[in-house]
Amino acid sequence: MSTLLFAQDDDLTPEEKFYRDSISHLNESNAAIELSQTAYNEGISLFKSKNYKGAIAKFEIAVTNDPNFTPAYYNKAIAEISAAKHADAVKTLDALLVKKANYPKAYFQLALAYQGLNDNINAEKNYLKAIELDPKNPKPYYNYATMQFMQQDYFDAVANFSKVIMLSPEDAQAYNDRGSCFRMLEKYAEALKDYEEAARKNPNLAFVLNNIGTTKTKLKQYPAALEAFNRALSVDKDFYLAYNNRGVTHMKMDRVDDAINDFTKSLAINPKHATSYANRSGAHFRKGDYEKAKADADEAIKLNPKLADAYVNRGMAKEMLRDLEGACGDWNKGKELGSELAKQYQSGNCSN
Questions:
Q1: Domain boundaries for CATH 1.25.40.10 within the chain
Q2: pTM for this prediction
Q3: Rounded to whole angstroms, how far apart are CA atoms 163 and 174?
């Protein structure tokens, strides 16, 4: 009978041991990569269902099992930004950029993360890096311009929105936002031109039509403004801002009852819109209904204690209700909040 021989570890040559260990390591590596890919796919599904916390956990498993799996780092950071975990996203993206330098999309997301941390200096730096690496991508220009707008840097924002338009000529949003920069610079004709171009690009954007209306009101083109607000409301019947702004235009045209109706419609949709209460207060005052004017101003102040116009209107109502001391107190508060009209009333009617 023949005898079978079985080799023990000590019987293997160094080359055989190396081969065996390499195969074992390869099998372990393949298993880890498979586990990483499975976790990654599960993370994508969780992200799509807006379960950001679960997605982050799965992406973490993916990068732990495969530290070179760069898409997992990238999507983990996006999930962290979506979950408002901006500091975690910065760490994840920094780790990604060590592994994949000069990745423009990572710099773009890093800028978003820094914006979430209110770190505008680092946000700007990373938007500029994303632009440097991918100068034909309109997204970094757009976000950078939006950040500049929020910082009231309207001139530079115009320049960057213009770059977006050059790279993406059909982008209605970019035309709208550049128009808003022009409006803040009181360049109403340029603003209107951009808003109307945005509406041509996409006629179903209610906020663009609303912006056309408010700009035409600034230009005293009241009938045309009403038409724009009507178009906005035909697109979105629940657009309370369009009702409020149409009410303001009615007031400019001395259509006080129509204005009150519009302010009331705005409040029916959004009962917490302090500006609509303040505006309706002014309309009631114009009609001589001082109690209603005061009541609406009270409500506006309750909703937004920093709304200067509400203090002006309540002060006017109190003056007519023979409460000059209360009126002076409101005008003084309005003045503190930056209202020039409150300052005029306070200096003209009050001792201090």
A1: 203-269, 272-352
A2: 0.83
A3: 9
